[in-house]
What does this fold into?
Amino acid sequence: MPRRCSICSHESRDEIDRALVRGVSTYALETSYSGLSRSALERHGRNGHISTRVLEAAGAEEVRGAFDVVAQLKSINLVCASILQEARDNQQDNPDLALRAVDRLHRQVELQSRLLGDLDDRPVVNIMASPEWIEVKQVIFGALEQDDAAYDAVVRALEEGLNGNGS
It folds into this structure.
């Protein structure tokens, strides 16, 4: 009869499983928990003994981290800001570094603004200024000048629509 896995029966199994999933070395775990050996830890992981719920939780955390684009951008912004500060402090050594850091920060802030919806650079079309609309409007007004009843009906419909009384 094979021996029972010493990690599976350990009182701190969940903590050990989480540490293994995070990539903590078997040496560090061996020294942190009593009664463990590196070979037992390696067998535990290799033989698929790590708790399913620990693996699922770790996978979900990894997915959340991967999709947290704003947090990643903020992290990059901090690195760029520290490089900019370093370049300012040592301007004599590399004067171009400060300009490159400023450019990178500018692009980062622009990207972050787009992702958060603070910056919308989609084209805006003003239909009221388009030659086609001006021509259509002139044709409509020309036709309405010919018929007083049609003119009154259009004015009433527009007033109702603009006042929110229309359907």
